[in-house]
Design brief:
Cytochrome Bc1 Complex, Chain D, domain 2; globular; mainly alpha; binds heme C; single chain
Length: about 90
């Protein structure tokens, strides 16, 4: 009992450290889906070939639209889009 309570308390802090796909979906639906639709549709000519490229595209889009996203928001959204659409290995 004690251990399960403890692990419950630790969960939020753990999910902060790794990408949170559920948060990524919320962020995406709120700020990106109006252009890219849901599920995601690509709007550009260039194919995304790596997670780093995906992350930097998301960063440019969020900068451009002045969303004031932090690194965690970008990572969450990147992970969400990758599991739904891009399926990039690295
Ligand atoms: C106002 C419309 C608009 C919004 C809002 C927007 N984007 Fe984009 N996005 C575009 C357009 C247009 C392009 C294509 C730009 C190009 O290739 O020159 C693009 C390109 C991209 C790309 C590169 C792959 C592709 O589709 O070409 C990614 C990834 C991306 N956006 C993610 C996001 C994310 C994540 C958000 C939310 C933070 C977001 N965008 C918000 C219009 C938008």
């Amino acid at each position: 009992m004690k251990t399960s309570l403890l692990s419950l308390c630790l969960l939020p802090s753990l999910s902060w450290a790794v990408a949170n796909i559920a948060d990524g979906k919320l962020l995406y639906d709120e700020s990106c889906a109006k252009c890219h639709h849901s599920p995601y549709e690509s709007l550009g000519w260039n194919e995304i070939t790596s997670k780093a490229e995906l992350g930097s595209m998301i960063e440019s889009c969020s900068d451009y639209f002045q969303l004031d996203w932090n690194a965690q928001d970008i990572e969450d959204t990147s992970e969400y889009l990758n599991t739904e659409f891009f399926f990039l290995e690295k």
